[in-house]
Amino acid sequence: MTRSKHALRISPVLALAALLLAGVAGLAGSSRAAEESRVIPAYAGEAQPAEASEEVAVLAGGCFWGVQGVFQHTKGVLSAVSGYAGGEKQTARYETVGTGATGHAETVRVTFDPKQISYEKILQIYFSVAHDPTQLNRQGPDTGTQYRSAIFPTSPEQAKTAKAYIAQLNQARIFNAAIVTKIEPNKSFYPAELYHQDFMTLNPRHPYIVVNDQPKVEDLKRIFPDLYRDDPVLVTKAKTAG
Question: How far, in Å, CA of 32 to CA of 215, rounded?
């Protein structure tokens, strides 16, 4: 049985309670999401050469709202688009993906400048801040294969790096459990509906965002201060500019 945070009807009382809870956690200097993030070592292997002006990383780590928000606040990222990967084009719709039977995962396509930030550093942020890679077919309150941890490499080099980095982190026992992130090559990415794009920025007081996703951006700023940027790169702004 799958569960979707988007489908939940949150009463005003529960919404207020969630906001108050997040506020108290912030005053205490931590939150549920912040406690799950951690400092992890950088990739120890040979880095890919920065030859192109743009590179794409396609990553799934639970709800795409938070993953998109993290990378929109990362320096060197040119765009971060929420969408679906792992299934067929005809089933790449939110209501269908939410059944958990399409093969799709909620995914974010991260386009970045490899001269400013490497693919290896993108993965370090992904494993340490954007999600918990030890949770199988779930992430936080959301359950189902559509919330799985997965990397969809766009080149054989990316697949090799991701596999080696996972092995490195598992061998070092950085996490309390083994990393369950799947590497799924040769899968297409399909952008999600417009109402899912830039959701964290457009809905900063949404209870789900306050409790689950804003702490991830705070952790990005805390753990990777040199890579954090205050103004996010937005999908809607890019569409307007285009």
Answer: 8
Report DSSP letters for 157-223, one per residue: HHHHHHHHHHHHHHHTT-SSS----EE--S--EEEPPGGGTTHHHH-TT-HHIIIIIHHHHHHHHHH
Judge whether residue 25 has pLDDT over 50.
no
What is the C-alpha separation between 67 and 51, in angstroms, rounded? Answer: 26
Catalytic residue among 63, 77, 92, 123: 63
Q: Model confidence over 139-158: pLDDT tens digits?
A: 989 999 999 999 999 999 99
Q: Where are the domains of the chain?
A: 12-40+51-228
- Note the pLDDT tens digit of each residue in 56-100: 999 999 999 999 999 999 999 999 999 999 999 999 999 999 999
Whether 211 sits among the annotated catalytic residues: the reply is no
Structure-token pair, residue 116: 């400013």
End-to-end CA distance of the chain: 41
64/110 Cα distance (integer angstroms): 12
Place of tokens 């993108």: 122
* CATH number for region 12-40+51-228: 3.30.1060.10
Determine if the pTM surpasses 0.70.
yes
DSSP 4: -
